[in-house]
Design a protein that fits this description.
Rossmann fold; 4-stranded antiparallel beta sheet; Arc Repressor Mutant, subunit A; 221 residues; elongated; 2 domains; 5-stranded parallel beta sheet
Length: 221
């Protein structure tokens, strides 16, 4: 379930948004000031933030730069082009002027969630509970981190990128040779064996299987 944070001191608008979003299957967080919003978002992660600019205490413009990790759709009565340009340049993902149509807002939320999923897909490989972060070069099974060598990471990445097929040994050696020149045909079996052992210890089952005479593949359930 996606979580949407509604940051608006207008109780009527906030209640209306919460009702609409809840009906659409979203979980809703509420904050009525900039300070409250920052405290709330430190404790609970949102997938999209709906932010009013005219808030008591810290304004929407003041807290916007602190919300860089989450897409922010500004919803404001300010209609001046300069206001819109400024908040978009300051990091807002979108801008919607009050009054607004809820169907349009829901569509814009869907667009932001889709962008987030596409971004996530480009930086992470997933096979069951096994996650491989392509930016940090880290592997996790559930909440358990799996420490990999450079060669083990390269092998696992290749196998997960081709999870539905057998990857021949010659292809593995060719594809990873640029990043891991230390991996030769004679040592490939050892690297894979060590990798399988680490994944089995972290996840309690085998994630990689050998296909006799050909190569290796991710093990289907």
């Amino acid at each position: 379930m996606y979580t949407i944070a509604v940051i608006d001191d207008d109780v009527y608008i906030g209640n209306m948004l919460e009702e609409v979003l809840t009906r659409e299957g979203y979980q809703v967080l509420r904050a009525y000031s900039g300070t409250e919003a920052l405290l709330l978002l430190e404790q609970t992660k949102a997938d999209v933030i709906l932010l009013d600019l005219m808030l008591p205490g810290l304004s929407g413009e003041e807290i916007l730069p602190k919300l860089k990790e989450t897409p922010v759709i500004v919803i404001s009565a300010k209609i001046d082009v300069e206001d819109k340009v400024k908040v978009l340049l300051d990091g807002a993902a979108d801008y919607l002027t009050k009054p607004f149509d809820t169907k349009e807002l829901l569509a814009r939320i869907t667009v932001q969630l889709r962008k987030q999923e596409n971004k996530k897909d480009s930086r992470e490989l997933i096979f069951g509970e096994l996650h491989l972060d392509l930016l940090c070069h880290e592997a996790h099974i559930g909440e358990t981190a799996v420490k990999l060598t450079k060669t083990e990471y390269a092998i696992l990445k290749l196998l997960m990128q081709n999870s539905r097929q057998v990857v021949p040994k010659s292809v593995i050696l060719n594809r990873i040779s640029e990043d891991t020149p230390d991996c030769m045909e004679s040592s490939l079996k050892v690297h894979v064996s060590n990798l399988r052992k680490k994944l089995r210890e972290a996840g309690g089952k085998d994630y990689i299987e050998a296909v006799w005479g050909i190569g290796f593949k991710m093990r289907e359930e």
